[in-house]
Automatic annotation (TrEMBL):
Gene: Tecpr2
Organism: Galbula dea
InterPro entries named in the record: WD40/YVTN_repeat-like_dom_sf, WD40_repeat_dom_sf, WD40_rpt
Cellular component, GO annotation: cytoplasm
UniProt xrefs under SUPFAM superfamilies: WD40 repeat-like
Name used for this protein in its record: TCPR2 protein
PANTHER family given in the database record: RUBY-EYE2-LIKE PROTEIN, TECTONIN BETA-PROPELLER REPEAT-CONTAINING PROTEIN 2
GO biological process, one term: protein exit from endoplasmic reticulum
Superkingdom classification of source: Eukaryota
Amino acid sequence: MASVASPVIFKEFCPLYYLLNAIPTKVQKGFRSIVVYLTALDTNGDYIAVGSSIGMLYLYCRHLNQMKKYNFEGKCESITFVKLLSCFDDLVAVGTASGRVAVFQLVSSLPGRNKQLRRFDVAGIHKSSITALAWSPNGMKLFSGDDKGKIVYSALDLDQGICNSSLVLEEPSSIVQLEYSQKVLLVSTLQRTLLFYTEEKSVKQVGTQPRK
């Protein structure tokens, strides 16, 4: 006799008011009052990262129930993508509407972990809005894609405080998703999906028909 499947139970979750109340709805710039829009989101077991239209990254620590703020120096521009990673250190990568990419190495209270906030910049390769970010599991590699089809590889040496970046692939349409695993980068664009083998620097398309 076939077993009867258990019924699916739907749950409704309340808005995260403790998080939203810690983010201002407006900020004052000179004589102007500017509305703050939430533009990007990523979560893991330790943090909730929220990007905003004023270039401010709001990082909520779930264990300490604390909100911290990080921003780019200079021009105030919208954050378009954020990507968290928990490895030996906690890292968050941030991309903006003009193509700026920065990595924040977060402070940890655990012994042997990072004790000073550090920032690494992916210098000057992207010239348009960042649409995707992907980490390697150990935090030594970051891939970033933009809406003009450029994909940049950044090699991070957290001990030496060095970030070296280079253009590795250029597609004719916007990048919509990046995922990295075991020397293979999965790339989805508005037109196709492909596998980029980072060691051989070769490309294999997934499927044969272009997206419409």
